[in-house]
Amino acid sequence: MTTANATVTGAEKVDKPVLTDWRPEDKEFWEAHGKRIASRNLWISIPSLLLAFAVWMVWSMVATRLNSIGFDLTTNQLFWLTALPGLSGATLRIFYSFMVPIFGGRRWTAISTLSLAIPAVWMGLAVQDPTTTFAEFAIIAVLCGFGGGNFASSMANISFFYPKAQQGTALGLNAGLGNLGVSVMQFTVPIVIGYSIFGALGGDPVTLQADGGTRETYLQNAGYIWVPFILLFTVAAWIWMNDIASAKASFKDQAVIFRRKHQWLMSWLYIATFGSFIGYSAGFPLLIANQFPAVEGVQYAFLGPMVGALIRPVGGWMADKLGGASVTFWNFVVMIAAVFGVIYFLPLGDSAGSFWGFFAMFMVLFVTTGIGNGSTFRMIPVIFRTQHERWSAGKGGQAEQEAVRNANKESAATLGFSSALAAYGAFIIPKSYGTAISLTGGPAAALYAFIAFYFTCLAVTWWFYYRKNAEVPC
């Protein structure tokens, strides 16, 4: 078949749910049809992922208000309600990372997005019932982990649509704007709980005890507000997204990544970038309140995850232009310096520290987590493509085509699995703060441990990917 005929074949199939002819590395095909299809899938994926992050992290807002509306939960119970979505979301990512090649990207995006409505609606009902037990709240919090799981499948899916040279930017946009769901939720929930948005359908207000007085609040809207959008983008995914036939693979086909050294190495690096982003996002408000109680700094905490999310596409773009290993290596250097800066401005002994110095260093740290998220995710497809091209060299055109397919499948599975491991940062970092403060009176010990970890990541990046004659330069 000639290139012209192949392009015609592609044109005949662009509007079908299952794409049986998908060649993003073919420049003529990409410019004629592929770019438009990939963009359509990306811009449905992004808001779907944003909703997932909003539902995943919503307990960080809801838990702070439960006792104020009449519940009697201990501090430890409230902590678990904020931590459980992180634990379940990270665990679900392990399974979700393999779902796209099994079910197809269109089907799984629709199914996984619709699943978010379960905890959103149940939460809305539960906070209105004063007899709701901690156990029931805990189950809802676990189900909010659906949102955390969605990231793995979303990233794996988008990786199939773009050519290698553009995957960093595309994955950065998907993840960065999707991660913005944390900040969107933090902005939205305090506003919507003040109004009867859904009328009688949304239920009656509850009385909130605050600032020495009382006022009516609609805490149920923290869950309900997302439901119309969840339904909208479920339908959009089902109608306008696509499955790629060549991306099909069983779990057994994808499980080969567990024998790939670079899967584990890149997972280690991504724990340092995304694990830091989500962990710092979860722990930042409490750390501010604990270390600088005289400063009303918690109101600025949302800026951290917002900056980290918005800068992530820049990290992917920089990696496309400068090379993923180069960007990642120097990004870890800045991360280490930023954590030292945070420690320097902490209160110590008779010194009250400097809130604004501390805050500025954390903003730098959030920027580096975002850039690192984008650059490491760009490295993964390049690494697997390079390895498979080496293994297939000199074995003929059919072997080379098979190498491309295998590289795409393995890199997609690695993108998902590494994000699963990294998501445990949502629990580990805040818990590390708490342990360090209880044992030493401050968080510095935890921060020094993070610095030590970042040094190992610096060494891994340099040895395997960045130095001259590295095993897989990228």
UniProtKB/TrEMBL annotation:
GO molecular function, one term: nitrate transmembrane transporter activity
InterPro entries per record: MFS, MFS_trans_sf, NO3_transporter, NO3_transporter_NarK/NarU-like
Biological process (GO), any one: nitrate assimilation
Gene3D superfamilies the UniProt entry points to: MFS general substrate transporter like domains
Domain of life: Bacteria
Transmembrane segments: 42-59, 79-96, 108-125, 137-162, 182-203, 223-241, 268-288, 300-317, 329-347, 353-371, 412-433, 445-466
UniProt KW keywords: Cell inner membrane, Cell membrane, Membrane, Nitrate assimilation, Transmembrane, Transmembrane helix, Transport
A GO cellular component entry from the record: plasma membrane
Topological relation to the membrane, as annotated: Multi-pass membrane protein
Protein's cellular compartments: Cell inner membrane; Cell membrane
Pfam families the UniProt entry points to: MFS_1
Annotated SUPFAM superfamilies: MFS general substrate transporter (SSF103473)
Family from the record: Belongs to the major facilitator superfamily. Nitrate/nitrite porter (TC 2.A.1.8) family.
PANTHER family: HIGH-AFFINITY NITRATE TRANSPORTER 2.3
NCBIfam families with a match to the protein in the record: 2A0108
Protein name (Swiss-Prot/TrEMBL): Nitrate/nitrite transporter
